[in-house]
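Hi everyone, sorry if this is the wrong subforum. Our group has a chain we'd like a structural model of before ordering constructs, and none of us has done structure prediction before. Sequence below.
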Amino acid sequence: MGLRLPTIQLKSPPAGTAELVVDAEHHRRVVVEGILRAAVSLDIATADFKAMLIPARRGASIVEVFRGLAARGVEIRLLHAGTPSAPALRQLKQTLPANLTIRRCPRLHSKAVVIDSRSMYLGSANLTGAGLGAKGDGKRNFEMGVWTTSSDLIDAVLEQFNALWEGRRCTTCRRKDICPVPLEEPRL
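Answer:
Right subforum, don't worry. Here is the predicted structure as tokens:
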């Protein structure tokens, strides 16, 4: 029998705030008020990772934003499922800052952005322009998620994130045929 992760049950209703984030609000809430304001850490889980452009940073890509945050000392962990888009890979190959660690788990499908372990987005949006970006009507996905400051919920999500990040889920994974190097980091 392999590692079995229990269903997380919170002891009481989560203390903190929670708000529904829908469609275009993702950019403001998750990117502008979340990612761009990170001071200590960013933990991101996403199935798809592209070089999303950030209008609030004069069209800089999310990779450039990560570089700037890492230069300020923010520790960034990005866990994704697939191969990043070609533009994202090109930008990553320019050098990966020491504070930015990227790992890949082909089974990952969850989407979460945890900022400074104090606020979190948990929902459907990938780290792409159509998901979290500022694309216009007709070009963005129909997304929905929750923005919360509930420390109990954030801790529960970080426990799941860490189980994936550290490879604790690899022992029972039945997709090793597509993942010859569990939690591989991009070869730059």
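For your construct planning: The first strand starts at residue 18 and ends at 22. The helical segments are 25-32, 62-71, 86-92, 151-165.
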